[in-house]
Amino acid sequence: MSNFLRRSAQGAGVPHEKGTSNLETVAMPLPSKIVLSMGQHIGAPAAPAVAKGDQVYVGTVVGKAGGFVSADIHSGVSGTVTEITTITAPNGAAQQAVVITPDGQQTVDPSIAPPQVTDMKSFVDAVRASGLVGLGGAGFPTAVKLSPKNLDEIDMLVINGAECEPYITSDNRCFIEDTHHVLNGIKQVMKYLNIAKCVIGIEGNKPEAIAKMKSAIDNPAIEVKTLPCRYPQGAEKVLIETCTGREVPFPGLPSDVGVIVMNVTSVAFVSKYLETGMPLTTKRLTVDGDIVKQPKNVEVIIGTPIQELLDFCGGLTAEPGKILYGGPMMGTCVADLSQPILKNNNAILAFSQERAKLPKASNCIQCGRCVNACPLGLAAKDIVVAFNKGNVELLNQLHADLCMSCGTCSFVCPAKRPLTPSIALAKIMMKNGGKK
């Protein structure tokens, strides 16, 4: 453990708001178009592999991975490429996108077939060909995650089913509705990567998912661990520590302690792909919020405009104050409802102007709640002071770059100070060598 840090892992008792947990997933009909961003993952963006006027099918590659840390993009509809354009990503960056108008036939690409997997290399190659990235929010290319340099030291697979963000229940529905694929995907990863044991972490507020997984497990090397309902239980380092007792070093990766972490939806998709050969073209996500007329868990084609998804859920009952990709703690604001659903989206949440209004901040009262709650033991209040002073040396000493922007410090602050956004700016200042 670093001399500077205290790994408290206390987190925060955020409200669950899991109102859609018992709603079965419904499939959304074909949208009027899909907009496929070439940057739906961490790493190099994909490059368009089609041109305007091209005919594509369900499963056709329309974007080729731009490097080792990248991922292919596939069409979820059959139809015609109507445009290669530029869109604004949730982080504000400009990204290329392929726009496809469906023909309504949903003709499957003739090249689609289950992959031939016989060993670790062919397994990872299959995962790479599927276009899979982390579906829990991060979007890290899965084939890269499954290729650690120290593979012979990996002895534990941890499945992230914590789903600790309020409102989101799509992973919960995955456990309940895709139980077979969750277990089969786990077995395939364990088999081809020669991993001895698996722990499935599920927060205790999902009793149906816990019971179903426990009753379905037929391998003593796989176990379900009930996690405390404490945000951010699903954060990678917190999850590993809770499930295995191992502490990922600073800086470090899960592989440094013999662990690979996969989201439950990601591992379930591995099973589906091995059985069908259909690449990643759809996504289960939760649509909820205080102004969504008909909250649902929806299976939606990747690239569907958000406006059409909200219309499928009955529309909004009031003018929105904020619409989010993801949860209220770590989600990203949607600037335009024409923006598309991305691979790593697990929710679209819409809130009223009253619910979205930020409370007025006051002066820090030095209560230390932000320090006690931070799952990594960072001193948020001190980091913000160092940022305001432009003291990069102190920011480095306080390990500000380790902040994962979980929002816990802002949530627990009685003065309602915007600690998390300030730390995000501090990290940028550190990268820029002291310039705000």
How much helical structure, as a percent, in the residues?
25-40%
If classified by CATH, what would the architecture of the largest domain be? 3-Layer(aba) Sandwich
Terminal residue distance: 30 Å
Low-confidence stretches: 1-6
Care to describe what's here?
The chain has helices at 120-130, 142-145, 170-177, 179-193, 207-216, 236-244, 264-276, 306-312, 353-356, 369-373, 380-389, 392-397, 408-412, 419-431, and strands at 26-27, 34-37, 47-48, 55-56, 61-64, 73-74, 79-88, 94-102, 156-161, 197-203, 222-227, 259-263, 282-288, 296-301, 320-325, 332-333, 347-352. With 436 residues, the protein is α/β, with parallel strands linked by helices. It has 4 domains: 29-107, Beta Barrel (OB fold (Dihydrolipoamide Acetyltransferase, E2P)), CATH 2.40.50; 120-276, Rossmann fold; 281-357, Ubiquitin-like (UB roll) (Roll); 369-431, no CATH class. Strands 1-14-13-17-15-16 form a 6-stranded mixed beta sheet, with helices on both faces. A hairpin with an 8-residue loop joins strand 5 (61-64) and strand 6. Helix 3 runs parallel beside helix 5, helix 4 crosses helix 7 (264-276) and helix 11 (380-389) crosses helix 14. The longest helix has 15 residues, at 179-193. It is globular.
